[in-house]
Amino acid sequence: MDKIKYLKSIDDLPEGKKYVIWGRGLNSRSFEKQLYKKNIKEYKVVDNLDEYREELIFENEFCLIITPLYWCKKIIEEVRTVDEKRIIYINLMTNMHEEYLKNNIGQEKVKLIGDNLENGKKDWYEIMKLIIECDESRIQDFLLNDNQQYGDQYFDGLNICEGMIIIDGGAKGGNDICKFSEYIGEKGCLFAVDPRLNNERHQNIIYMKKVIGKKKIYKVDINKGDNSKICKNNGGSWIKAIRLDDFMLFGLKHIDIIKLDIEGMELEALKTGKRLILKDKPQLAIAVYHKITHFFEIYEFLRGLNLGYRFSFKGYGPGYSECILYAY
Fold this sequence. Notes:
single chain; alpha/beta; about 30% helix
């Protein structure tokens, strides 16, 4: 795709322009902090085509910076339906984590984890190259190949059998619930935990409108579609929380699988289930891409439990988005 630039440093932005940031997630907020440090104040944030159209009306000259790597291709296609001339920047910056990268991520640590992966070494080293060196080849491959398939997220690394009991953190109410339900059959049970669900029971699924975390209650923005997040400022709704260890109080003999994709709360959630994990050693499918630090900290936490877990790793999107660490 022509007229696309890869933003590897805040200094790569052309001076004297106004900027529009597409996205309101973690990468967008981190990018805004970099702009603030550079005393750059002429920017606006959008996350849909209608908002983008409004900026087109009022501004003749600005640079568009796309921060959600997973959706970058779709966003580019939408933008070009109304604005073919705009030069688009895809944000590959990881220097918002510069202190962590400098002090905690060296080639020794990257190699230590990579060498201990049973499957997914290629994905691991490709993504580490992108994170550490801002190498854009993985993104280019995604943009140029229309039929690229990344696999079956969550299910590739799990051995799901009839009768299993599964905790699905970040269930969302979509296709994953249906697939889990089908695999475990009538004798199994799926606990679908998500703040956007209603508390109810249906066949072999127990829906729980909750957050998994160490506190008793959290304020959550549940109007973010697939990306509901804990609120640190005003707004949001108060949602009760459950700890993973609390499932031990339900009279269950064994938890077979835990899947967590909960917008950066994964490590905190795992720590609330230490007793459960030590007791049952469930298979795990954990999203590690919401925070750069989680690529390392979640592996180190699970390895430190000394349960003999084997690990595999797979990225299901461009860049370092949609990456899952499996333990079994």
